[in-house]
Amino acid sequence: MENDIIPQIDISCVQELKLREIDFIDNDFAIFDDASEIPMYDSYPNRINAAILAVCLKGHAKVAINLKEYDLETSSLLMTLPDQIIQNIGASDDYSGIFIAVSPQFIDRTFTQMKELLSFMFYIKEHPCVPLNESELNCMIEYHSFLWKKVKMKDNIYRREIAKGILSAMFYDIHNFCRKHMPMEGYHPKTRKEELFEKFMHEVSSSYRMERSVTFYANKLCLTPKHLSGVVKEVSGKTAGEWIDDFVILEARALLKSSEMSVQEIAEYLHFANQSFFGKYFKHYVGMSPKEYRRS
């Protein structure tokens, strides 16, 4: 069985299409102003292994992020995180926008010193659409235009470093745009607990299909399960077990919606002991059986 049944798209997939209206820096960065040729499977969820910034310049669009629907209106910014499940639901005939895609590796190398990143990532996860005023919209258009000009300079040996610098500046401006929508809290250097939480989330995103035990992840991080759950709860507001269950249920829901796998096959894919146990687990969190959810 394939490692990932949900269609997965990353920057290298798009680069292989050799589209003339998209510019790249290796498999780390893409910039464009027409999303119509991107190989997303319309009406089906896709796992996007990149962070996406999209600014709606005209018209409107509807997308689902981790199966939750959002409306992207004119003069609004959409931000998604790597490995989120994205579904293109539809757009108006006059829809237009500007787009930037950045690989997880490029993000790690660009934003390593940004102490605000963790709290901002939490905000983006819950609030991916941000309205922009006229000044903010013009700022994003200027960043996109300037960045695209620099990325096109293939003979500039520092274009990767230049792109990192522009992205860093853009991140701070976007963060400033969002501050008026975010809870006012003081920022501080990343704590040991926040670092542990990041490591926990990385381990879960890699192993949740195989392992649902808090003990497994605690052992990986050389912690007791009680200590791990306490740290995760303090940093994120949810326990370690709740985060694990969130990953598993999201995957199950996406598979039921986007694939033709039977419930038995999905149970096996997610390493449940049997279909009955998977069905009880799914119903506990979703409120209906897998078959009922698929029919709905």
UniProtKB/TrEMBL annotation:
Keywords: DNA-binding, Transcription, Transcription regulation. GO terms for molecular function: DNA-binding transcription factor activity; sequence-specific DNA binding. It comes from the Bacteria. Residues 198-296 form the HTH araC/xylS-type domain. The keyword GTP-binding does not apply. Pfam families: HTH_18 (PF12833). This is AraC family transcriptional regulator.
